[in-house]
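Narrative of activities, Objective 1.

The group set out to show that a structural description can be obtained from nothing but a protein's sequence at a throughput compatible with the screening campaign. Below is one input-output pair from the validation batch, recorded exactly as produced.
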Amino acid sequence: MKYSWHDFLQKSMKLQFNFLAQSTKNYSDAMKFLKQNGILPGLSDAAANEAEAASEFWDYLSKDHPKPPFGLTETAIAGKKVTVAETAVKEKPFATLKHFKRDCTRNDPKVLIVPPTSGHYASMMRDTVKELLPGHEVYVLDWENPRDVDKKHGDFSLEDYIDYVRDALDELGEDVHIIGFSQSTVPVLAVTSLMAEEKDKNRPASMTLMGGPIDVTAEQSSVAEFAQQHEIDWFKKNVIMQVPSEYEGAGRDVYPGFLQLAGLMAVNADAHHKNRNDLLAALRAKDKEKSGKIKDFYDDYLAVSDLPAQFYLDTIRLVFQEAALAKGTMTQHGKKIDPSAVTDIPLLTVSGKKDDIVPPAQNEAAQDLCKNLPDDARKSLVLEKAGHYDLCSGTIFKKQILPALTAFIRDAGVKRGISYDAVPQAPVRKTNKGKKPQ
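Output recorded for this entry:
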C-alpha cells in the first residue's frame, strides 16, 4: 500500500466518522427536543444519552492527531509554582535538544531524556518530564518526523542516532544523567559504552534504561519474533515507502508511522479494546475526568511519526535479528561497542512484568553486559503490575518508579563528588482532624 493511498483512506475514514458524529448528535438533539417540548413526555433519557456519547466518541475519532506539544509551562517546587520555559539548546535536521528551563536558582541534577524513535513523538514521555521537573534540570532530545525533513539532509541511520545522542551529551557538558526508554535504550547503552571506554569527560554521570530490547534473545516477544521471521529484504520491499510530494521530506524513504501504530495496537489489542469500552462508558456517565484521561493518552498515542528507512532497517537487523550489542558484534563507525567498558557509570534498569512489547529479561540483560560495574553502582527495579507505557507515565511511574529514580540519580551524583540541593518536598496537606463541627 503506497503512502499516498493510505493518506486518501485516512481522510475518507475521517469523513465517515464526522458523518457518524453529526448523525448521532442530530438523533440525540431530536430526542431531547421531543421530550422537553411535551411531544413525547414519557421518552426515556437513555436513548438520547447513548446517542450523545456515541456522537462524542465518533467526533474524537474524526480528529487529526498532529505532533502534540509538551505543554509544560509551570511546575511546583515545595508547593510553590515555578514558571517553565521550553527552549531549544541545539537544532539539527532530525532532532532538537530542548531544555525545560525552570525560573529558579536550584542546584539539581542535569538529566537528558532520550525518547524512542519508534513511531511516537517525544511528548509520549511528557509525564516523565513533568514529574522530574521539580527536582531536576531536564533536557529532552526531541526527534523530528522524517516526513518533514528535506531530503537534502541525507539518510539517517542507527549510527547517526548514536551520534546525535553523543552530540547532546557533549553540548550539555559534564555530570549529565541519561535516561533511555524502549528503543532508545540500545543507542543510550551504546554511546555510554563508547564514552566510558574513551574515559570521555562528558560521559554520563548515571544511566537509566527503561523497558528496552537490550538483548532480545534473553526472552522472546512478539515484536522480536516477527522481525526474526522475515529477511531484511522483506522489510525493504513491503514496509518501506516514499514520502509523497505534499510533504517537505518528499522522496525520502521511510517506514510509515501508521504501519508502526497498527503493529503496536495489534500487540496490545485487548488493552485498546478495554480502553475503547472504558471511554464509551465514561462518556455515557458524563465522567469528564475519566474520559479526559483516556483522550489525553490517545492524543499522544495516535499521533504517529514516520521512521527514517535506514534507521528502521538497522534497528530490525542489529537489535531484533542479530542482538548485536548483546553479542558483541555492534560497531560505531567501525569501532566495536563493548558495554563491559562501563565501570564507573551507575546503572538503573526498570522493567515491567506485564510489558507485552519488551519483556523484563530483555532490558535486565544490560546488568550482565555491564559486568565490570561494582554491585553498589547498579540497581534493578522490576515492577509486578507495570506494562510498557507504565514505565514512563501514569500512577505506577509517579508512585513507584519516580522515587527510586530520583534517589538513584542523586546517589550517583554524590558518588562522583557532586553536591545537589535537597529533593524538594511537597507541603503536608492540612486536615480538619480533631476540629469540632461548627
